[in-house]
Amino acid sequence: MRHLTEIDDLSASELQELLALGATAGAPPVLAGQGAALIFEKPSARTRNSTEMAVVQLGGHPVYIQGQEVGFDTRESVEDVTRTMACFHAVVAARVFDHSVVERMAALDVVPIVNLLSDQAHPLQALADLLTMQTEYGSLAGRSVAYVGDANNVARSLAIAALLAGMEFRIASPDGYGFRPADHHRIAAVGGSLVVATSPEAAVTGADAVYTDTWTSMGQEAEAEQRRRDFAGFQVDESLMALAATNAIFLHCLPAHRNEEVTDGVLDGAQSRIWVQAANRMHAARAAFAWLLRAGE
Residue 61 catalytic? Predict the structure, then answer.
């Protein structure tokens, strides 16, 4: 049985299989007559809509479950919740606060587990990001993506995915907001070209794609003012985008804090692919569910 808790659960060749599935218009009915449990400790517009529609496209029935309905380790243990869901569903996907929850779910091997986001990883977002860049450029090998901002869960999954796909991954973060040693070690273990830049300008110059995320993620609201001060000079604006490759694109996982980490001019500009990227969340989820269910046959 296979699970997707982080992108490096896949080999480089398996990642290419998922990207090919995501780029395919047809959807195999691998969930026909079956359910998919979608557990959300943290709310999300894109994740809920993309995963529900992905399940529908695969012939299944999505069941949206709020975190308080299962109460991980309060109402019931993570393990008992997982076993309960496996009584009714062919796959369980969860958006959680603590990454250890999806790891504990996967360790049971009773049903394929998909991480819809945790504090450490966002693998379906990374798949959607690669699909977006692949649509733009064809082959990803030899291309570069520059990430400007907090080295968070989105950045970690994107870095792993990019390196697995043969891309160069560059990142520029303020002091204190870079990858932790354990994350850096895990990313570097993939191999390939990981560049920790000294400034946003150094990261972006000549890059094929420029990526950013909010400076203050969900659950960090109390740090918002301090983060705005710490991230001064890390906004992606038109002048920074001008340093990228001529045909560079801009990416953002959304939601965006407009005119904070990125200007309206970049978000809504000709180089922006944020809506293609958002649409690809559905294709990425469909590919992941289909691949995991086929892998378990």
Answer: no
